[in-house]
Write a structure and sequence with these properties.
2 copies of one chain form a homodimer.
Chain A lengths: L4 E5 L4 H10 L4 E8 L5 H14 L5 E5 L2 H4 L30 H16 L3 E3 L15 H14 L7 E3 L7 H11 L21 H12 L20
Parallel strand pairs in A: 1-2, 1-4, 2-3, 4-5
């Protein structure tokens, strides 16, 4: 029996790669990548294409939302703001927050989903152990689902699914390992494109999770600080 | 006292021009125009710039959402679909519906609003007497407002305002006349860029409304069918 189509947002990072691995179990996946003018976009795009090739995804769409660079307001898109060194104890919304980015990305996914008849839009957002971004919270996606239901053709509304939202980075790696997700093809660094810096928030969260599992992260780093305390 | 900033979505058409005229009474307006790959974009962009010049708007942003052309699904963006001749009795969702376009446009506006500290996002959507588009209904904007509240920095959420949503086209013209809105600078035709066709849905709704008020629409038409029955 043919499977229902779903649109999967795939940034090229670890979380969306595992979300895609989960989605593939149920859906005929169409992969969507968004260029929002982030510093590392060319590296992320390469990761997106490699993951899509790995899974033999025929339906792919690469979309530009580069106005998110034009409006600035984030260290990920504004060249005049430095990418801060990781501080995993910091609370609040980090400088890397891109204003309402997920609203824009979901809207693209919903438009495409409505045209191809996809019943789901899958996004690898993570609420805990991650970012503090307001547009990564389950409450946001619930509200956006109501807007989708009301703002699309009757009977055609896709539903946002967030398969990793309540997982820790550590659990995401475990789930991805079970499913054979191609971590070696992913890219998470906020700052660099050849060797991951190892010291931005995104690298730190990723390295700490691999370290806590006693695993080697298979991508190349310039430095690999120890973020997870060794067992006594 | 300086006025609060607001982001106003200005397509170049009549409804958003009047929405902008209303918004100017309260807010320090920043104008946002979206290119979504519609057939008449170059003419609409010209109208946007003329309206922004007319109102001496300093903060302007022109953004591309041309993926809405790439995904197709609408006669406004898909060159292989004809723009239908107006049928003002037709019910249901017309071919010109662009899937979840307003979700995408509002997301751009919200991202910009969050960066410039705008408290409102103004959109000239019209629910009745217009289009049958699901993403033009008040219920959609209410739901989207909840998503904005949850998906932006605490205390920075702008509120979507729809000052013409419950007006008829006729009432929109009356309101615009009271406010001196520059109708002569607007463009509504779905099909053409030099002379408005006079026969697409958008031209028909506009012409009927001017005719019902006994007024001449100040823009040039190739043909001006009579849509409003003359009084007996």
């Amino acid at each position: 029996m043919p499977r229902d189509p779903a649109v999967v947002l795939v940034s090229g990072g670890m979380d969306s790669c595992v979300a895609a691995a989960i989605a593939r179990q149920t859906y005929d996946c169409a992969f969507l990548h968004i260029d929002y003018g982030q510093r590392t976009e060319s590296r992320e795009l390469r990761a997106f294409r490699a993951i899509a090739d790995h899974y033999s995804i025929a339906r792919r769409l690469e979309v530009s939302l580069r106005h998110l660079r034009a409006v600035r307001g984030s260290s990920l898109t504004d060249p005049s703001m430095p990418v801060p060194r990781a501080d995993l104890q910091r609370s609040g919304i980090p400088d890397s927050y891109v204003p309402f980015r997920n609203g824009g990305m979901l809207s693209v996914a919903v438009s495409w989903a409505e045209v191809i008849g996809a019943r789901a839009v899958v996004i690898g957002a993570v609420e805990e152990d991650s970012s503090g971004y307001p547009d990564c919270r389950a409450a946001f996606f619930e509200a956006f689902n109501v807007a989708i239901e009301r703002g699309t053709r009757p009977g055609r509304a896709p539903v946002i699914q967030t398969p990793v939202i309540s997982l820790s980075k550590r659990q995401i790696i475990q789930r991805g390992m079970e499913l054979g997700a191609p971590f070696h093809l992913t890219w998470s660094c906020y700052q660099d494109e050849d060797l991951a810096c190892g010291i931005c928030d995104s690298c730190a969260l990723r390295l700490r999770a691999f370290q806590s599992l006693g695993l080697d992260d298979p991508i190349p780093y310039r430095e690999r600080p120890r973020y997870h305390p060794a067992e006594p």
